[in-house]
Each structure stands twice: as structure tokens, then as C-alpha cells.
Design goal:
The chain is mainly alpha-helical. It has 11 helices and no strands. The longest helix is centred in the middle third of the chain and has 36 residues.
Length: about 220
């Protein structure tokens, strides 16, 4: 298993090397853009890809959420400025969910074994690990994902190192990210454009309640199987 993990790490490094060889200016430019964290500049950069802007924005948002930094609000807000409120939020939620799921898989692959050994040495950690599985762990992750401005990278790590299943993590992230991403993006969008329309926040909250109700029913149904 150790050799497999080393091989996987080398493949990830090789991917970045290949990207740099194909487009030497791409990664340094992205790093500078992320470091500045300017939402308007980010939107302009995404728009510069023309007809491929949607695909590029999806991949960029995915990549940032897989890393866990910088804050996703930069990209969710930029997406609403470019593509509009509805498409911008939909694109952001989809890309962020895929990104945090990739992060979950990578972190679990590399670190879960070590976490299990540490957990086995502590009764408290063992009980917390058991708590994270099943419906209770699902609801905890769902509620945490719903909180706007909460560090996504921290939740990625907690989910990966816990006993939470991939299915529960994915659904909790998808549903939970809709209200948090929607609220963050709308507030950022309205602040930059100096607009104010509270009905959009209300619509997001109502739709989020419907999604949460469905997620709870789905988890309750499948936990009995």
C-alpha cells in the first residue's frame, strides 16, 4: 500500500509538470490570481477564455475546492458576475461538490489508515469515529456545509479522516453547499454591483429547505436498508 501511495503522489506531481510543460505561463498566472483574490479580476480572467469560459470556470472552481483554499466565494461570486445568478450558483455548487469529493478521496486514500491507528488508541476518538458514520455523521456534515464562509478545507479533512461514507459525504456536500454558496455568491454579487434584492436570498433559503428535507428523507430511507 505504501508503494501505491508513493506512485499516486508521483502521478499527481507529474500531472502538474505536464501542465507546466504544455503551458509554462498558466500555473504561475493562476497562482498570482489566487494570491490577489480580486473577484472582478478573476471574473475578467475567466471571461478571457471566451466560449470555453464555462468549462474553464468549472475546472478552476473544482481545483480550488480540491485544494481547500483560497475561499470559494471568490469564484462563486465571479461566476454570478459572468453567467448570472442562477447559472453562476448552479455552476459553482456543481464544481465545488466535485472538488471537495476529489479532496475527500485523496485525503482518505493517503491518510485514513494512519488516522485509524491513532483513533484505535483513544476511546474518545473511537466513539467520535463511530458517531461520524451513519445518519448522525451525515447530518453533522450537512449542517456544517450549510454554514456560509466556513473553511471548506477543514470539512474536507474531517470528512476524509472520519468513518463517513463517500455517498453520505457527497450528498451532504451537494445539498449543504447550495445554501452556503448561494448566500455567499449573492451577497458578493450585490456588493460589487451595488444591487440589493432580498427576494433572491429568500428563494435560495426556500429551495435549500426543500433540498435538506429530501436529503434527510433519503438518508433515513437508506439507513434502514
Amino acid at each position: 500500500m505504501r508503494k501505491v501511495k508513493i506512485a499516486a503522489a508521483l502521478l499527481i506531481v507529474a500531472l502538474f509538470v505536464v501542465i507546466h510543460l504544455i503551458a509554462p505561463e498558466f500555473l504561475p498566472e493562476i497562482c498570482k490570481l489566487l494570491a490577489r483574490g480580486d473577484i472582478v479580476e478573476t471574473a475578467q480572467y475567466i471571461q478571457s477564455y471566451g466560449s470555453m469560459a464555462v468549462v474553464f470556470s468549472f475546472l478552476l472552481t473544482l481545483f480550488v475546492n480540491a485544494l481547500g483554499f483560497p475561499p470559494a466565494i471568490i469564484f462563486s461570486t465571479a461566476n454570478t458576475l459572468i453567467f448570472g445568478i442562477f447559472l453562476g450558483i448552479t455552476l459553482s455548487v456543481a464544481a465545488e461538490t466535485v472538488g471537495v469529493t476529489i479532496s475527500f478521496l485523496l485525503l482518505r486514500f493517503f491518510f485514513r489508515d494512519a488516522a485509524e491507528k491513532l483513533i484505535a488508541k483513544s476511546k474518545f476518538l473511537t466513539s467520535m469515529d463511530k458517531y461520524s458514520s451513519g445518519r448522525r455523521g451525515f447530518m453533522a456534515m450537512l449542517v456544517a456545509r450549510m454554514v456560509p464562509y466556513f473553511p471548506s478545507g477543514l470539512l474536507n479533512a474531517i470528512g476524509a479522516l472520519s468513518a463517513l461514507s463517500l455517498r453520505d459525504y457527497f450528498i451532504a456536500s451537494l445539498v449543504g453547499k447550495f445554501p452556503s454558496t448561494g448566500i455567499e455568491a449573492i451577497i458578493g454579487h450585490d456588493t460589487i454591483l451595488q444591487e440589493e434584492d432580498p427576494t433572491r436570498i429568500i428563494v435560495v433559503v426556500i429551495f435549500a429547505v426543500i433540498l435538506i428535507g429530501w436529503a434527510y428523507w433519503y438518508e433515513k430511507k437508506h439507513s434502514r436498508e
